[in-house]
Every structure is written in structure tokens, then in C-alpha cells.
Amino acid sequence: MKVKFTKIFFFSFILISIQCLSQNGLFDKNRLKIQQEVHLIDSLNILSLDSVKLLINDSINVNVKKFTDRIVAKNVLRNSNTNFEIKYYLKNGELFFIKIEEQSTNLSDLKKHTEYYISKNKISDVNYYRNMRICLPISLDADIDKQFGYNKNLSENFMKKYVFQLYKKINKTLRL
To answer: Where are the domains of the chain?
Structure first.
């Protein structure tokens, strides 16, 4: 009887584990699928279809290039000399992914990256990461954004609003 109970418990444990792990696997597969679509769009969109220069709030210069399934907006904050690029990715005319790359003002080879996964015109998931050098000393007591020259005013809340406001302005200007 004890052996039968152990087998049933072990079998149940395996089924529950597979179910739990498969839920997480579905999410990772969806992210991987989106990343593959983004890579394909980046490799296929070579010639821009349209471009425009915008001025936002008298302090942000934006150079926009429209491709078939991608919009690239290079932003320069004049007061702080901050540069960041926003790439909007479209599938069947609908926004599905946004990637932001902020250039470090202190080190030319470092960037801060933010990725927004979009579903029904809302952010469904976010991914943040930074390029780092292995040999670069980092002070644990100091603010990392300040150490590498990233703009503190480009906060998470600001960027989540700004990317959609800019997208609307681009659509209105280019009449997409």
C-alpha cells in the first residue's frame, strides 16, 4: 500500500510540476516569437518610406524615419545633450513592440535598453537591461545611472507615457 501511495504521489507531483513549468514556458515562447519577428523586421526594412523632423515641448528634437513595419525616432534632449532612440514595430499596421536605447553620455559604447511588449495598445510586459563592460569599476554606493551618464529624467513612468504620445504625434504628422 505504501509503494502504491508513493507512486501516486510521485506521479501527481510530476504532473503538477509539468503544468507549472509549461505556463512559464508559454510566456517565454511568446517573447522569443516576438524577438524573432523584430529581428526579421530589422533585417528586411532597409529603405525608409518617409521621414519627418519634430520638436517636442521646445526641448526635444526628434528625427523620424518610417519603414514598412518599423518607425525609428532619434530623440535629442537639447538641454542635457541626452540621445535616445525609440523603435516602434508594427504587425499588420498594429503596434506590437517598442524598443528604447539611451546612449550613455560618459561612455560611447554603453547603452541602457528598455523593451515594451504591446498588446491592444497597452504595455503587457517590460524588459530592462544595460550594456556593461567587464573591466569597468562600479561603485555600489553611487547611482548607476549617474555613474554611466544616463538621464534620470527619463524615468520609467515618463518613458511609458512619452513613447505613446510621440507615436500619436508621428501618426498624425505622417498620416499613418
So the answer is: 1-44, 50-174
